[in-house]
Amino acid sequence: MLTIRRVEEAAAKAYAQGKIGGFLHLGIGQEGVCVGAIASLRPTDYVVGTYREHGHYIAKGGSPKGCLAELYGKATGTSKGMGGSMHLFDAKNRMLGGYGIVGGHVPLAAGVAFQSKYRGDDDVTLCFFGDGSVPQGAFHEGISLAGLWKLPIVFICENNQYSMGTPLYRTLAVPDVTERAAGYAVARDRFDGDDVLRVKERIGEAVARARKDKTPTLVEVITYRFRGHSMSDPGNYRTKDEIEEWKKRDALPAARERLLKDFAVKEDEIVSLEASIKAEVQEAVRFAEQSPDADPEAAWNMVYADPNTDPRKM
Ligand SMILES: Cc1ncc(C[n+]2csc(CCOP(=O)(O)OP(=O)(O)O)c2C)c(N)n1
Ligand SMILES: [Mg+2]
């Protein structure tokens, strides 16, 4: 969680310096969700995410270098600098995006889960999306087929209270997202995302069900983003008090406390871990800055997959 936060803080700084172009959506405040959920997976399981997916990419085995270089549009980025912030792909770690169309990736994730079942693998797919995906048509098409075909997938709504600047009460007639599950014969769960171990345990139950029984679950995790929607959003639609209230439920300092109290980790061990994460991220920034730009000619090489290459082995 700390690595992800430091990477995103570094990204925000580089963006303000004009070193990163395009969109940049930070998940600062939401790290407990992707880290807890992905910690419950096996390496061969799949993750499909939105444009707010830096944390998911890193939690799935990606590196600060691969993330930052991608944001900088460099050839050494995880998508060879062709995707940018919203399109982090890492086939070898089975991180399958990074999508900019709200809700559009939900049926794609159902397709990934379908191939696992079709091939007889026991891999599970986690599909992350925001509260803004829930009223979208594609979301319902994806979850409907997952329920009908009993696909090994966990749909995880990261409910951060807003779709861009629009609060939940203006987008959802039924604010409990998981009530939709009943219409599609999908199991459901809903809980707070302020404790990373709770997230791991509860998502782990849904993952176990998907792996063993081949049945989907719709999970809603209550969370909050501390920054605006993207770098161009100062977030003026909410009060400082609201943000401060949510900061009391930040999963990152809570995890630090638990390491000290419940797991008998020493303060100086944590301090040295924090220092090594800081150094790793500083090194990743240097790497991104010094890497060569993406080669526009190389874009043609990636329009179609090589039919002789199994992307799962890349
Ligand atoms: C189909 C579609 N409509 C509109 C947009 C513009 N848009 C980008 S992000 C966003 C809000 C999505 O909110 P949510 O799903 O809650 O995710 P969050 O940004 O909070 O993580 C919108 C409307 C889009 N990218 N795709
Ligand atoms: Mg949202």
Description of the structure:
The radius of gyration is 19 Å and the shape is globular. The strands form 3 sheets. The protein has a 5-stranded parallel β-sheet, with helices on both faces. The protein has a two-stranded antiparallel sheet with strand order 2-3. The protein has a two-stranded antiparallel sheet with strand order 6-7. The model has no long low-confidence stretch (mean pLDDT 96). A hairpin with a 4-residue loop joins strand 2 (89-90) and strand 3. It contains 10 helices and 9 strands. The two termini are 27 Å apart. It is α/β, with parallel strands linked by helices and 314 residues long. It has a single domain (2-291), classed as Thiamin diphosphate (ThDP)-binding fold, Pyr/PP domains (Rossmann fold). The structure holds thiamine diphosphate (TPP) and magnesium ion. Magnesium ion (MG) binds next to strand 6. Residues 52, 100-102, 130-133, 160, 162-164, 229 line the site of thiamine diphosphate (TPP).
Structure in a nutshell:
The chain has 314 residues and is an alpha/beta fold.
